[in-house]
Specification:
This protein is α/β, with parallel strands linked by helices. The chain folds into 2 domains: about 230 residues, 3-Layer(aba) Sandwich (Rossmann fold), CATH 3.40.50; about 100 residues, Rossmann fold (3-Layer(aba) Sandwich). The protein has 15 helices and 10 strands. α2 packs across α8 and α5 runs parallel beside α6. The protein is globular and about 60 Å long.
């Protein structure tokens, strides 16, 4: 094994993360999705959705945030934590900080706990539903512009001023191991799965899931999926080096959780080692996949949570043959007005 490969998150680290986060993050179900045409009777194929939308914060991000924060010392908890996020990681950090901070109060009395302060640097165009949920979890929000680079710069400034502990959204081994527990559960619950599809933005979920799945069963194919309008990872995968897209391009997609301008360094190393390909989907395909998920399973996806399903529905020719596929519904924190619009729009 090369020196670079030795830095990759191991299956033992992911297994340990699964045990560590069990009191905070749910083990979410696989939901059978008999989509007409691709997984109906007679095709010989089964499609399952990994329902991360059913996490306590409505998204997979609780996994990585919990794994990172649960490993902080009492002194670090007392300093408080900070992150930079468009919404779902913000909620994951806020939720985990609240739960972990409660450990340091008087035994049996959560009301006397000093808690763990959580500061979230958030773009001004973050969905209102995600902003409100983050505030409701007790976090402090600091607003910046839409670029992910702006969020990082502001977070670094606040760390210098206040000494907060940074909880990165994706480019971190403990975050990757935490997100990898999603893939660990998929293989546990469906050992003969032969294709797994994950959304990709900064790469935390895809890198962790791919590391878990491929180390548990090297024969299983793993693909990333992202919007055509924010396809920096697809370009990076194709060229073999990390490509950055400007915020004015990535912010065009309806999939607000997938607007990161480039994949993380650690994440890209995992993607290169374990991922078979990256597929891109259109805005119309994302919206159609949202409708299909609701109609077929009654799960409610946000746009980012529907991209993996969109690849199965509309890009099967870009994927390997399969008998059992899992698409990860990464989140369900969709604005009610947007959901109503998508479900009722005319498709003709």
């Amino acid at each position: 094994m090369s020196t670079a490969a030795q830095t990759l998150v191991s299956i033992d680290e992911i297994r340990a993360a699964a045990a560590r986060i069990a009191p905070i993050a749910f083990k979410t179900p696989l939901v059978r999705a008999p989509f007409p045409g691709i997984a109906s009777r007679g095709t010989g194929r089964e499609v399952w959705l990994k329902a991360e939308s059913l996490q306590p914060i409505g998204a997979f991000k609780i996994r990585g945030a919990a794994n990172k924060i649960l490993q902080l010392s009492p002194e670090q908890i007392a300093r408080g934590v900070i992150t930079y996020s468009s919404g779902n990681h913000a909620q994951g950090v806020a939720y985990a900080a609240r739960e972990v901070g409660a450990k340091y109060g008087a035994p049996g009395d959560r009301s006397s706990s000093p808690g763990c302060k959580a500061v979230i640097v958030m773009p001004s165009n973050a969905p209102a539903i995600k902003r409100a949920a983050t505030l409701a979890l007790g976090a402090e929000i600091v607003d910046v512009g839409p670029a992910s680079s702006e969020r990082l710069a502001k977070a670094e400034e606040l760390v210098r001023e206040h000494g907060y502990v940074v909880i990165p959204p994706y480019d971190d081994e403990q975050i990757i191991a935490g997100q990898g527990t999603c893939g660990f559960e998929i293989v546990q619950d469906l050992p003969d799965v032969d294709l797994v599809l994950s959304p990709v933005s900064g790469g935390g979920l895809l890198s962790g899931v791919a590391a878990a799945v491929r180390q548990m069963d090297p024969k299983t194919s793993v693909f990333g999926v992202e919007p055509e309008l924010a396809a920096d990872t697809a370009e990076s995968f194709r060229t073999g080096s990390i490509i950055t897209w400007p915020a004015e391009l990535t912010s065009r997609t309806i999939a607000d959780g997938l607007r990161t301008q480039n994949v993380g360094q650690r994440n890209f190393a995992h993607i290169q080692a374990f991922v078979d390909g990256v597929v891109t989907v259109t805005e119309a395909e994302i919206r159609a996949a949202m409708r299909a998920i609701v109609a077929t399973t009654r799960l409610v996806p946000e746009p980012s949570g529907a991209v993996a399903t969109a690849a199965l529905l509309y890009h099967v020719n870009e994927l390997p043959p399969y008998r059992k596929a899992v698409a990860i519904v990464s989140g369900g924190n969709v604005d009610p007005a947007l959901l109503a619009e998508v479900l009722t729009e005319c498709t003709h």
